[in-house]
TrEMBL record:
Protein name: Argininosuccinate lyase
Keywords tagged on the record: Lyase
Natural source organism: Thraustotheca clavata
Alphabetical list of CDD domains matching this protein: Argininosuccinate_lyase
Family of this protein: Belongs to the lyase 1 family. Argininosuccinate lyase subfamily.
GO BP, one annotated term: L-arginine biosynthetic process via ornithine
Keyword presence, Transferase: no
NCBIfam families named among the record's database cross-references: argH
HAMAP family xrefs: Arg_succ_lyase
Argininosuccinate lyase C-terminal domain segment(s): 357-424
Length: 454
């Protein structure tokens, strides 16, 4: 509504709007949170209108006084029209000049970009703190060994810190992806009008400077309907939630195996079984992943059939966007809390190690004696089968039994059955040796110091 209870677009219409249509059409309940961004955009627009000679300096100053009051007290009504209505109530007909050359199409597009730019700053800070928490968890537990899994089957021994840093690597990509997105959000659509541009020679570069945008949109048709940046942010949220879900799945399994203990703050009990301590925080993180991906999919389907320029379908953007942002704000905080309070159980992890996980090391023993790996792989497999048939651990095979499989085995083959030595042999960048894991940790810490001052 504008002045006198009239719709901004009401001059064309004589009949009243169906109340159901009015409810169907409204977006206030969703858009309300952007009121500060809307005032920020209007302040810059008023300055540009003044520079273009559309409003006077005195009128601009009066606008500023009203907006100062809005910013202090909040704007608890339709953000896209309240500016004009309240300005007109407080300073007279001059308030009606604010919308000159401006459409709700470029106004709302600007509001959303301002809001998203600010949201990204907050999300980046949260993600930086999460990386710092995870890296500290790894650094504090460097000596702990655990089974590494493929296909959920015990595979080779690794450091617990190496497992933690595997998730840090994925989350760091998410941080970099979010940072890269900023440059595509940082484009000013204001001054595009409804779709065809501005008729009053407004200085769009001035607008961009006032609002802190890096550049202006190159095409007015595209500017009012471009929601790529929203899709990208929701994709970022979806990809990050996939990584949270994978982290949660790992920890749910490790919690069941007693490799780790969840803090009470992130667990709940059973209404029937007193002994239960459920990893609900992790299950909720895993569950939220589907909801966030669903919002991305839904909005992309909305976009795929739209003709060029603005269509009201685009009003669906903000409910999906805000859901994703709100979910990420909560999920990042929960993930950081879980990791900050997690207790690794080194004894339980080490007890799960079995010498069959060193079968590759047995094959590599022969490689170091000049036997081709394809042959040594076959020999090690035969050793595993022999141990299984004898119903004993792989490390209990005698030297004579091993020699029956290949003559190159010597007495020092028994040194192979050492989990710490196995882990330390993986001493290449990206490997699970202490030096390699420490190198990864130091690199992330340097990144956090450079990017986040953490």
């Amino acid at each position: 509504m504008a002045t006198g209870g009239k719709k901004l677009w009401g001059g064309r219409f004589s009949g009243a709007l169906d109340p159901v249509m009015n409810k169907f059409n409204e977006s206030l309940s969703v858009d309300q949170r952007m009121w500060a961004s809307d005032i920020q955009g209007s302040k810059a627009y008023a300055k540009a209108l003044c520079a273009a000679g559309v409003i006077t300096a005195d009128e601009t100053n009066k606008f500023k006084m009203v907006w100062t009051k809005f910013m202090k007290n909040g704007l608890k009504e339709n953000i896209h029209t309240a500016n004009e209505r309240r300005l007109t109530e407080l300073i007279g007909n001059a308030g009606g000049k604010l919308h000159t050359g401006r459409s709700r199409n470029d106004q709302v597009a600007t509001d959303v970009r301002l809001y998203v730019k600010d949201a990204i700053k907050g999300l980046m800070h949260q993600m930086g703190e999460l990386l710092a928490v995870a890296t500290h968890l790894a650094e504090s537990n460097m000596s702990l060994l655990m089974p590494g899994f493929t296909h959920l089957q015990p595979a080779q021994p690794i450091r617990f810190a190496h497992w933690v840093m595997s998730h840090v690597a994925a989350l760091q990509r998410d941080v970099e992806r979010l940072s890269d997105l900023t440059k595509r959000v940082d484009v000013l659509p204001l001054g595009s009008g409804a779709l065809a541009g501005h008729s009053f020679g407004i200085d769009r570069q001035l607008l961009a400077k006032e609002l802190g945008f890096a550049r202006i949109s190159p095409n007015s048709l595209d500017a009012v309907c471009d929601r790529d940046f929203i899709v990208e942010l929701m994709f970022w949220a979806s990809m990050t939630m996939v990584h949270f879900s994978q982290l949660s799945e790992d920890l749910i399994i490790y919690n069941t195996l007693k490799f780790v203990t969840m803090a009470d703050a992130y667990s709940t009990g059973s209404s029937l079984m007193p002994q239960k301590k459920n990893p609900d925080a992790l299950e909720l993180l895993r569950g939220k992943c589907g909801s966030v991906i669903g919002r991305l999919n839904g909005f992309m389907i909305t976009l795929k059939g739209l003709p060029r320029s603005y269509n009201k379908d685009l009003q669906e953007d903000k409910s999906a966007l805000f859901y994703c942002i709100d979910s990420m704000v909560d999920c990042i905080q929960i993930a950081a809390g879980v990791l900050a309070t997690l207790t690794p159980n080194g004894g339980k992890m080490r007890a799960f190690l079995v010498t069959e996980m060193l079968a590759t090391d047995l094959a590599e023993y022969l490689v170091r004696r000049g036997v081709p790996f394809r042959e040594t792989h076959h020999v090690a497999g035969a050793a595993v089968r022999l141990a299984e048939d004898s119903n004993k651990p792989l490390s209990s095979l005698t030297l004579a039994e091993l020699k029956s499989l290949h003559s190159s085995f010597e007495a020092d083959v028994m040194d192979v059955w050492n989990f710490d030595s196995s882990v330390e042999r993986k001493n290449v960048p990206g490997g699970t040796s202490e030096a390699a894991v420490k190198g990864h940790i130091d690199a992330v810490k340097l990144y956090l110091k450079k990017e986040f001052q953490l």
